Amino acid sequence: MSKQCVVVGMSGGVDSSVTALLLKQQGYEVIGLFMKNWEDDDDSEYCSSRQDLIDAVAVADTIGIPIEAVNFAKEYKDRVFSYFLREYEAGRTPNPDILCNSEIKFKAFLDHAVRLGATKIATGHYAKVREQDGAFQLLKASDDSKDQSYFLHRLNQHQLSKSMFPLGDIPKSKVREIARQHNLSNYAKKDSTGICFIGERPFREFLNRYLPTKPGDMVTPEGKVVGQHMGLSFYTYGQRQGLGIGGSRETTGEPWFVAGKDMQHNRLIVVQGHDHPLLLNPQLDALDMHWISGHAPDTTHSFAAKTRYRQQDAACHIALGTVDTAHFTFDEAQWAVTPGQSVVVYDGEICLGGGIIK
């Protein structure tokens, strides 16, 4: 009987490398696939895709699996980057990694893998898939500090049915140890941070190449001008760094935070103090709700939700609106709820889905 073929998305990082290694050890026929999603300035100091490809090929060679590179830059630009720019222009803060997963890694990549003869695809995400009564559930990873189900909440039943996440039960420290034991050259490679196509570059400088600066006033909620901003697109709710407002005699001396955007008058609303009432919100509305199971849960239950990735689950109640909208009420006010970011819903360890914060 021929082995089941699994295509692994290999990024050159340690997580996807160990994913490929584990699947090979488990007896699968493994093919590595390196995705190139960005090529606008590939020779720049920030875009590491060339080095990443070299690392991925070296690992594939060590493990003894074939690897090919595939270019999804056009799909990425059409499906992810154009949305990203539209949202920023509208003053919102999108999460392109979530869209990249649903549109590129588990759509364009999945389609390509199927053409290569794969029955499943695998990635180095820290999450789990469970099949129950013919339905597929997305679960949190065992290592809570690395759990990435938040970024996968827009996957559907078909995508989950084809996906494997071998790292779901393994702590990150163990992943590096496995890589070291098997002489994978990237066992100590630093995890990549930052948005998938931007790399480690200064974010504002990157955005400035695509969006015009449109300076205006930074004002307190009372309307007092305390500084100048360079364009509302370049700031996000809760932002503290890069505001350039010093303390003054009339102010409390506490740090300033972005608390709102007045798009109509091109004004950035700033407040002092991390726990200013304008930064705390007990409720939010969400658009474009997506439920992994294909249908909304019974909302008479209470659930937990995250309004940003690095956050504890917060107890909440959900009221469903018409056409993929929902209203969330939290037991405790949430800090810096940001339009354009995702609110992701959990029932214990099960990720149910989520939507875009209005």
From TrEMBL:
GO BP annotations, alphabetical order: tRNA wobble position uridine thiolation
Domain tRNA-specific 2-thiouridylase MnmA-like central as annotated: residue spans: 205-272
Keyword Nucleotide-binding: yes
GO cellular component terms, semicolon-separated: cytoplasm
GO MF term list: ATP binding; sulfurtransferase activity; tRNA binding
Keywords of this entry: ATP-binding, Cytoplasm, Disulfide bond, Nucleotide-binding, RNA-binding, Transferase, tRNA processing, tRNA-binding
NCBIfam families found in the cross-reference section: PRK00143.1, trmU
Name listed for the protein in its UniProt record: tRNA-specific 2-thiouridylase MnmA
Originating species: mine drainage metagenome
